[in-house]
Every structure is written in C-alpha cells, then in structure tokens.
Amino acid sequence: MKILVTGGMGFIGSHTVCELLEGGHEVVIVDNLCNSSVSVLDDIQAITHARPVFYQEDIRDKAAMDRIFAENKIDAVIHFAGLKAVGESVRMPLEYYHNNITGTLVLCDAMRKGGCKRIVFSSSATVYGMNNTVPFREDMPTSCTNPYGWTKMMLEQILQDLAVSDPEWSVVLLRYFNPIGAHPSGIIGENPNGIPNNLFPYIARVAAGTLPCLSVFGNDYDTPDGTGVRDYIHVVDLAEGHLKALDWTVANRGVEIVNLGTSRGTSVLELVAAFEKASGVKIPYKITERRPGDIASCYADTEKAARVLGWKAKYNIEDMCRDGWNYTAKGMKK
Ligand code: NAD
Ligand code: UFG
C-alpha cells in the first residue's frame, strides 16, 4: 500500500516509516520539520535501503495537502504530526489548538477529496485524566487538564464524528502510553531540543554527562517505592502496532480505540536502576517536589490490542534501556 505519514520525520513517525518500508509499503512523508531534521531521511535510508517521498509542508496548508493527494494515490494515512509538550501547551494554547486541530481538519478534508478514508491517529494515555484507576481500559471515561490533552480528546471526538457521518471511513485511535528507547541500529531515536521534559531522555542526558543530576518528582505517591509508575513501551513495538492498525483499517470500517502499552508499570527509580544496568553509568538523582498534574500510576489494559489488532509488545525495560543508551552513546561519539 501507499501510506501517507504525517510527522514522519519525528520520533515515533520515523520508526514507523522504517517498519512500513521493511514491510514492503510505499511511504510518503509530510512534515514541516518544526521538531525534526531533514537528516532523518538519510537515517531512514541507512536502515531500510529505501527512501520515502518527502514533502516539507505544513499539514495546515490546504493547497499543499490537496497537491499531495493529487500527486499520490494514497491508500491510508498514519497521522503523527502535532505539537506534544504539555507545559508548552499551557503557555501557548492557541498555537496548540491551531496546529493540532486545524492541521487534522485540513488533513481529513484533503483525504476526503482525495478519496482516502483510512486513518490511524496518535492519541495518548493522557486522555484517561486524573480520576480513573489502573489499568486503564479504552471504555473508561476521559478527561484532561491541559490544552495538549484537550487536542487529543477533541480530535478523538472529531474523527469519531467523521466516521458516523460517512460509514466508508476506517479510523483507529491509538492511545500511546510512554514510548521510549530507540531503533536497535542506534541510527534513529529521541533527541529533544533543549532540556528534556520527559524522564527517559533526561536520564539519557545525565548518563551522557550533559546534564548533572536527575530530579525525581516526588517519592510520596501511593506506589511500591513512592515514585511515579508508568507503562514504558519500546518505540519499535509501538511502530509495529501501527502496521497492525493499518491492517485493521483495510479489513474493517468504523472506529476502534486501542491502547498501545505493555500493561506493566515501572517506577521512576526502577527505570533509573535499569538504565544504570544497561549503560554501566551511575545516574545521580535527588528527590524534589511532585510535578503539578502528574498522577501516581498510569498503565494500560492491553487486552483489546491483542484481541482487535492481534498486537502485543515484545520488548521489556532492559531492551528499551539498552537500545536507548546505544543511540545516546552513538551520538556522543559523533
Ligand atoms: P515528534 O515531535 O518527534 O514528531 C512530530 C512530528 O510532526 C515532527 O517531526 C514535527 O516536525 C511534525 N509536525 C508538527 N506539526 C506539524 C505540522 N503542522 N505540519 C507538518 N508537520 C508537523 O513527536 P513524537 O513523539 O514522534 O509524537 C508523534 C505523535 O504521537 C504526536 O501527535 C504526539 O502528540 C503523539 N504522542 C506522543 C507521545 C510521546 O510520549 N512521544 C505520547 C503520546 C502521544
Ligand atoms: N519524572 C521525573 N523527573 C523528570 C521527568 C519525569 O521524576 O525529570 C517522572 C514523572 O513525575 C512521572 C514519570 O517520570 O512520574 C514519567 O514522566 P514523563 O514526563 O516521562 O511522562 P508522562 O507520563 O508525564 O507523560 C508522557 C507524555 C505525555 C503523554 C503521556 C502518556 O509527556 O504527553 O506520557 O502517553 F500524554
């Protein structure tokens, strides 16, 4: 199939593009490079020996999106493009709503005009909000506390409304838990600009010596060691989940909402210990205040992913730390 991947130069998108190319699909990427670099194209080629077609365009650009569908017979879309930093979304709500919501509306309109009605969308476990108990199941009520989360909730609603309006649409809303790690080649991975907000890239920078010490945000949560528990998932497992979701859109119509996680919770201190073991580097840390908006525990019920998509994560925390460290260590040598 010919797949349009929006945001295909980013962290999760680039890993998914590699899986698609290795699975024999043709790939067209649209990305405005606001959070990625054009060099990712060479990286993808180095891994897969194939080069996707690339459009450096903004998905909010109607004319550009129409042109992409006119120039390519797209069978399905995997839609990653979006802004994703929770704190930034609180400071810049208009930019987040405009980028994420308007971008998706323009994309879906171009899809409709282009006769392509299959879409796999990047949602997030953030939509489970503060009031559910773990493990999180797809039929639990959703809520959120920041503009980023609202964009995911609103887009889930918009895509469901679209499928109701026209039964030819096939929509999979994938709720990711915490994607970490890197491609086993060490060629692509996560390398955020500035000081990382998320735990795994922060630990990696401390291990690499570019940041002095990790702040552990609270050790008085109701969890086994008091630190926050999350469901970390290897980015390659996550990428494979998208290929399964794509298969679903070919065989079915309507909407499915599916968690992509491992169903296993890992605390901050457990992740630190696993990273130290994988890297052989001691990670200095200090306990600080809780981060506002954080919940104690977040992990997935993954029964639906297995039943509906036939997908299950293969990699464990050790694999995630090994591959994440391999990528970081390779970058240090450059
Ligand atoms: P990323 O920032 O690495 O990738 C997103 C890509 O989209 C970037 O390459 C960026 O340049 C591009 N982009 C953004 N706005 C665009 C626009 N208007 N037009 C064209 N390109 C645009 O992020 P990621 O971690 O790969 O996340 C991908 C998706 O998954 C996002 O929608 C994100 O919200 C969602 N998600 C991520 C996580 C996570 O922890 N990484 C968790 C849950 C959900
Ligand atoms: N943490 C620290 N120190 C840090 C960073 C994080 O102790 O420097 C802790 C947090 O308090 C939390 C855990 O590490 O307990 C994980 O935090 P992350 O920031 O890595 O991830 P979150 O679960 O807070 O959020 C991430 C994305 C969201 C997404 C969510 C679910 O940032 O956008 O996963 O997919 F919605």
Keyword list:
334 residues; alpha/beta; Rossmann fold; 7-stranded parallel β-sheet; 3-stranded mixed β-sheet; binds uridine-5'-diphosphate-4-deoxy-4-fluoro-alpha-D-galactose
What would a concise description of this structure say?
With 334 residues, the protein is of the alpha/beta class.
What is the secondary structure topology, with strand pairs?
Blueprint: E1 2-6, H1 11-22, E2 26-30, H2 40-48, E3 53-55, H3 62-71, E4 76-79, H4 86-91, H5 93-114, E5 118-124, H6 147-165, E6 170-176, E7 178-180, H7 199-208, E8 214-217, E9 229-230, E10 232-234, H8 235-251, E11 254-260, E12 266-267, H9 268-279, E13 285-288, E14 297-298, H10 303-309, H11 317-333
Helix pairs in contact: 1-2, 1-8, 3-5, 5-6, 7-9, 7-11, 9-11
The structure holds nicotinamide-adenine-dinucleotide (NAD) and uridine-5'-diphosphate-4-deoxy-4-fluoro-alpha-D-galactose (UFG).
Uridine-5'-diphosphate-4-deoxy-4-fluoro-alpha-D-galactose binds next to helix 7 and strand 8.
Give a structural overview.
This protein has 334 residues and is an alpha/beta fold. It has a domain at 2-180 and 233-262 and 301-313: NAD(P)-binding Rossmann-like Domain (Rossmann fold), CATH 3.40.50.720. 42% of the residues lie in helices and 17% in strands. The chain contains 11 helices and 14 strands. The chain has helices at 11-22, 40-48, 62-71, 86-91, 93-114, 147-165, 199-208, 235-251, 268-279, 303-309, 317-333; strands at 2-6, 26-30, 53-55, 76-79, 118-124, 170-176, 178-180, 214-217, 229-230, 232-234, 254-260, 266-267, 285-288, 297-298. The strands form 4 sheets. A 7-stranded parallel β-sheet has the order 3-2-1-4-5-6-11, sandwiched between helices. Helix 1 (11-22) crosses helix 8. It is globular, with a radius of gyration of 19 Å. 47% of the residues are buried. The mean pLDDT is 97. The structure holds nicotinamide-adenine-dinucleotide and uridine-5'-diphosphate-4-deoxy-4-fluoro-alpha-D-galactose (UFG).
